[in-house]
Structure formats: structure tokens, C-alpha cells
Amino acid sequence: MLNRRSALMLLSGALATPKTALAATPKEITWDDLLPVGVPYSEIIGEGELDEVNDTWNPIYDENATKLNESLDGSYIKMPGFIIPFDIGVKGVTEFMLVPYTGACIHMPPPPANQLVMVNAKTPWPSDDLWNPVWVIGMMRMQLQSTDLGQTGYAIVADQMEVYEW
Questions:
Q1: By C-alpha distance, which of 108, 86, 111, 88 is closest to 97?
Q2: Which of 76, 100, 70 is nearest to 27 (CA)?
Q3: Would the pTM count as exceeding 0.70?
Q4: How many angstroms separate the CA atoms of 58 and 50, rounded?
């Protein structure tokens, strides 16, 4: 039988078992979510220039290209994309650009900054599985940075990655 003091301690939580922290559930986002509310993708690309020597079209982005969705800053997210590797080691890829479609930044001009994400993976992604889409799960930050392939608008430290299943 509980005495009065034990009952009060139990009610106050003093004798309760420690609570285990539940793993955060990531918010699943799409590439459209990277755009700020009210900025349609069609308004990001203005005129462009034809590079006749290399037979490519170089879009000229307006100021909307670097506008980011501030509500995502600090969010724990899960988003799909394709890997453009920067750092490939024996164990795999740890630093890469996440892009919305195959060939972005390699075969054509890069998408605007608010459609490119720099990723640092805690666990290397196998280098023999670079051409398939992936899910990246981690903390999203707004972070404009320039790379050799294009300017990125976001950065993620990936806690986890997995194959994207259609």
C-alpha cells in the first residue's frame, strides 16, 4: 500500500520511470516547397543567352532565384532527389549536391539556387549507387553558397539516406 508521501511523489513524477525521447518524424517535402510562398518557378528564369560554341542555353535568373523558403530553416525534413557527388571516398559519397532531376548541373545549366541543396552525409552513400534517386533525411538550413556547378540555396546534414522507390 502506498503511504501519502509515496503517493505524492508518484503523482509528481518523482518515482516515474524516465521518459524515452521519441525520434523526430521528418517533414516530407518536395522541390516546390523550397520556393517561397508566392514565387512561382516560372518567374525565376528571365531571358537567357545561347552559347553557340557549347550548344547550351544559359538562363539568366532574376532576384527570385535566391529567395528561399524561410519556414524550412531548422526543419527536420525528408526530401527526394539525385546525387551530384563532390567528395567520393573508398566508403562512398559524403558531400554532394542534391538536385531535382537527373543530369541537373552536368548536362545542362544548373537550376536556380533555391532548387539546389548541398548535403553532408553522416554515413557515406555507396558510390556504386549514384544514379538512382534517394531520400535524404536531416536538418535543413538556408545557406547560399557557390560551387563549381552552381549556387546552392540550402544545406542539409543528412542523418539518414535511403533509396527512393517510385
A1: 86
A2: 76
A3: yes
A4: 6
